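Bug #77: duplicate submission created two jobs. Keeping one. Sequence:
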Amino acid sequence: MLLVRNNVTITAPSIDQHIAALRPKLIAFARLQLRDSAAAEDTVQDTLIIALEKHDSFAGRSAFETWVFGILKNKILERIRYERRYLSWQDSDQNDEDSFENLFQENGRWQPASKPQSWGEPDEILENASFWKLLDTCLLVLPDNIARVFTMRELMGLTTQEICEALSLSDSNCWVMLHRARLKLRSCIEKGWLT
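Kept job's structure:
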């Protein structure tokens, strides 16, 4: 079977090969979001079935990978909504270390232990593969509910309103969870990157 997209002919085996090459990225993304390997595998499998069945509807307005990731994002949201209906949302831990007030002294200056450290030049860090591996590791050790909110916002690009609707959160609770995620990620990265 042949497909023509943007004046490029693609044969069915190359579509299969392209999807096979894309699968590890999809699984990594789904595991990060769902925090359950079996759920991630199932969600990616559903995504790939849809991509293969509906490849004729791919109009080529974006990269094929972007189109497949769009399908995956929708499948992840469907799964989260389904789980939300049947599972209770775990309460976020209210650690004092996460309290915004505990980061600063009464005079408004940073507490010595909380003061951010320099990470170096941003452009150099973003090009460093070790930094990205550390960030992935730090994301994996976040508490599940906080990680889910953070990845929905920062990796999936959802608005806080969309996150609140999908997870039945209040707007203020969503912002608190995003704040906690950023604090925990900063702390983890500083421990792993700067030491």
